[in-house]
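Quick question: what would this complex look like in 3D?
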Amino acid sequence: MTEMTYDTASVAAGAAASPRRSRVIQIAHRLLTWLPGIALLLFWQWSAGRLIKEIYVSKPTAIAERLFELFTSGEIYPHLWTTGQELVFGYLIGVSGGVIGGYALGRSPRLARIFEPYVMAFYGIPKIALAPLFIIWFGIGMWSKVALAAIMVFFLVFYNVFAGVRSVDRELVNLTRVMGANQRQLTFHVFLPAAAPYVMLGMRMAIPYSVIGVIVGEFTSSTQGLGLFIHEASATYDPAGVFAGIVILLAFVMIAGALAGRLEKRLLRWRSPAGSGPTDI
Amino acid sequence: MSDPILAFDGIGQDFPAPGQRAPIRVLDGISFDIERGKFVAVIGPSGCGKSTLLQMAAGLLAPTRGGVRHHGRSVSSVNTEVGFVPQQAQLFPWKTLSQNVELPLLLRGVAAAERRERVANALASVGLSGFEDYFPSQLSGGMQKRGSIARTLVYRPDVILMDEPFGALDAQTRMVMQNDLQALSLEAGATIIFVTHDITEAVLLADHVVVLSQRPSRLLAKIAIDLPRPRNVFEPFRNEGYEAAYDAVWTEFRSQIDIGRIH
C-alpha cells in the first residue's frame, strides 16, 4: 500500500518522465502478489493423486469443473440466494445495532458504566454455541442464520465504534463547543467523522464473521444454503463439492471486502490525501 | 480606565491528588482584569495553572472558589463569545482548511454567501489564500497554526484565549508567527490573553504581563509593558526600553525558578 502510493507520487513528481517504465513496474508488482497463489494451485494440482489421494483434497481443475457444472445446471442458485440474503440481512442488522449501541455508550459515560460489563460478558460467549438455541427460537429457516450472523457482527462493530467515540480528543470537543456547537452539531461535525475510521475498520472485520455466523447456522440445521451444500458434499465424500462451496464463499468475502474498501476510501479521503503539501511556513 | 471586558475574581482551584485525600491547591486567589483591546500575557512556572485560567474563561471548567466575569456577567457555562487557540493547532483532520475555518460560522448559522466571504478574508489575513482545499495533514505545522488562528478570528470573538500557541513551533516559525500575531491583533484591535512560559515572548507581544507564582499559584505582579509598537520580534534587543521591561518581569519571575527542583 505504502509502496503503491509512493510509486504514484513519484510518477507525478517526475512529470511523466517514463510512464511506460512505471506501468511495467506496476504490472510486475501485481504479478508478484499473484505468484504465491498460482504456485499453491500448481502444487495442489500436481500433488493430488501423487502425494495425497484425490479423494481427500480433490484438485483445482476438478473444482473448477464442478463450479462450472453447478452454475450451468442452476443447482447452486437457490443456495446462493438463501445464503446471500442471510448474509446481507445479518450484516446490516449487526452493523446498525453495533453503530447505534457503540455510539450511545461511547457518548454517555453513565450508560457505559451500567452496560459495558454486560456487553463485555456477552462478548465472551462463544456465539457459535448459540446456534442450536437460535434454531429453536427463530426456526429452521433464514432468520436463525440472520440472527447468528447479526450477533457476531454486532459485537465487533460495537467495540470498534465504542472505542472510536471514546478516543475523540476532549480538547477538540471543547474547542468546538466554544465555537458554538450544540450536541447535534457535535455529533455530525466531530464525533461521527472522528469515529468513522473505527466504524469502517469494524465493518471490514465483520464481513468474514457474518459468513462464519451464517455458515455455522446452516451447518447446524437448514433446508437451503451454501452451508448446507458444503455440509452435504462433505458428508458424501465429495471434496470437489466442498471446495467449490468454499470458493463461492471466498468470492463473497472478497467482493464485499472490495466494496467496503471503496466506501472507506471515499469516506476517509482526508486520511491519505493525494500529493504532499507545501513545507514552508 | 475603561470597564474590564474580562475579570478574574479571586480564582481558586483545587484538583484531586492521585492517591491522597487532600486535594492539590493549584490556584490561590487570583484576581486581575483585562481591558478591551489589550494584549495580556500570562506567564508562570510550568504546572502553575496558567492554562486552567483560560479553561475557566471559556466556561469549560468551574473554579473551586471565585469566578470569571465577562462583560460583568458571571461565566457559568460554555462561553461562546470567546475564541480559543490551543497549543496544538487542533484543526479537524477530516475537513479541508476552508471547511475548518468555516465551521464556527456554520455552527452560528451565518448565511452561505457571508460565510464564503469571511472565510476568504480570514484566510487571506493569515496568508493562507490558495490553500483552501488542502487537508490539515498536507500543511506544515506553522500553516496549521495559522489556520487555527484564522478559524478563531473568523467569528470575531470578544476575547481570544491563546494557550501557549507557539510552544510547539520551531524557533524561526515562531518569530514569524509572533510578528504576524502582533500585526493581526493591532489591525483587529483584538483583546487577547496569551499564556506562555517564555519571558521574551511575553514582553515582546503584551501590553501587560501577568506573572504567576509556583503552586499554589498567586498573582505576583501585573506589569505594564510600554514599548512602542510595532515591536521588532526578530531582534528583541533593538526595541527601545526592552531591557528595562524584561528586567521588570524577570525580577518578579526569578524567585519562582529554582534550579534542581522538579515541577
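Answer marked as accepted. Chain A has twelve helices and no strands.
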